[in-house]
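REQUEST
  id: r-88c1
  op: predict_structure
  target: Restriction endonuclease
  payload:
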Amino acid sequence: MANITRERTGYLLRTLFELLRANPEGLKAAEALAALENTVTLTDYEAGEYPAGGRRFEKIVRFSTVDAVKAGWMLKSSGIWSVTEEGCKALQQFPQPGDFYREAVRLYQQWRKGQPVAEVPDAVDELVIEHEASITLETAEETAREQIHAHLAAMPPYEFQELVGSLLTAMGYHVAWIAPPGKDGGVDVLAFNDPLGTRPPRIKVQVKRNANSPRIDVMGMRSFMAVLGEGDVGLFVALSGFTKDAELEARTSHRRITLIDADQLIGLWTRHHAQLDDTARRRLPLKPVWFLAAED
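RESPONSE
  id: r-88c1
  status: 200
  body:
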């Protein structure tokens, strides 16, 4: 990371944290990086590219976030970046950018020394290699996730309903009905625990495919709850995800409701991939790729 000081790195990291703090539900990595770039003025060095390709700005920021994550200041979950309570405290405790970044590095090194596997690297170059391995895996996962999300979002609505029905079948449920085109009364898929539907509960599924829509809010959640009868279990599948208030509404309701966003859907799809039929696999064709994982 030549040509960039710890003060400058700390400034970029602190500014990123301030942006994330203003978005408590987190931001997608690409959105966070774009917001940061729009907030700061890049130097010529940061705006340039490495000889092997890739913008320096993005790598510098990602490099610094590795320390922040291990410091417990930042979370990266399914491509979403957010600041923890400890991270917010660090913003207050270390107002100077250089001090802020130095403390993140110190906490990273403290974490590293506590790892039982392998020797603790003494050379800075070895730490750089570790960070770069982590960044490579992180960006590969983000790219794959975005491509899968885009594929699902572009899928015709009724084909997406069929995909959800296929997943339920692979999970061992018996899909009795999938809504045809037209009004569905708030239920897109109906499933049971047995082929005849004699064993409760009855599972009512609502499917929202449009990933570019706002997250499902409390009103959307209550609208779905209204179609659930006594003994029904609700399954709400929404690529856009759910607001925290909507999640709270589902958790505290006397109705039994499970919420599934895009990443949870993909996780279930990969977990039950062996049980999917060929038609289902063609709807969402996935292939595993193995990376040498960085230590957690």
